[in-house]
Amino acid sequence: MARKKTKQLSPAALELLAARFRVLADASRLGLLHALMDGERNVNQLVELTGLAQANASKHLSQLADAGFLNRRRDGLYTWYGIADPSVFELCDLMCGSIARKLGRDLQEIA
Amino acid sequence: MARKKTKQLSPAALELLAARFRVLADASRLGLLHALMDGERNVNQLVELTGLAQANASKHLSQLADAGFLNRRRDGLYTWYGIADPSVFELCDLMCGSIARKLGRDLQEIA
DNA sequence: TGACGGTATGCTTATTCAGGAATATAGTCA
DNA sequence: TGACTATATTCCTGAATAAGCATACCGTCA
Fold first, then answer.
1. Given an 8 Å threshold on Cβ–Cβ distance, is A25 in contact with B22?
2. Domain B15-85 carries which CATH code?
3. CATH: 3.40.50.920, 2.60.40.10, 1.10.10.10, 1.25.40.20. Which one for A13-85?
4. Measured CA to C1', what is the nucleotide nearest A78?
5. What is the pTM of this model?
């Protein structure tokens, strides 16, 4: 057998992956996720916690839910959002570690 | 001691994290990273592997290097790029797993 | 039923940014 | 030096999208 080459990823797969990273590529949405670390919250609570405008928060929450990162649960007047996929926190932790390493390297270059 | 509340993340920290996710939120850049899984490549090789235009590839490579995901190494006429932070592949793997779980859930809803 | 609180949606504007084309820069070799 | 190759940069245009505002939707309660 010839040397194994890395399997080619289809453009569609790359775009799917990119689209999902794009959902995390916004500070407002990251703030919402962070505010949900301790459990379910409704929209008004999230507005208070994050300082976002209500309409804005609602739109971001919809995006996060559509992407599958959040659950929405309707209860009377309130809509409760919660984490549907905890791996989102692993992603953030990994990325934070990556940031730390980069800043460390940047520091080396200056010193 | 009062009930421990989740530590508040500063807007600047959220923006920093978001900016880093933004670098991964593009199919062309993900393709370049993927093409570098097997080791260093120069720009022309990456252009061939990905089908990107040279100027475009060069710009994306600069972004990836600025973010600290890639190294650049100059050798005569060639610029060799390589993975500086392998955790980028962990990030992609995690995200792919998250996609798979979401698609699984979507499937359930239809069935 | 009507009034109200909570949430979602449509419209508009401003900004960001990817891609293409042309060009500039830099290193090599005759 | 000048021609040539590899890579980077600049300018431009079009598309995506976040935020603000107004308003529509929906469930509750008097």
1. yes
2. 1.10.10.10
3. 1.10.10.10
4. C6
5. 0.91
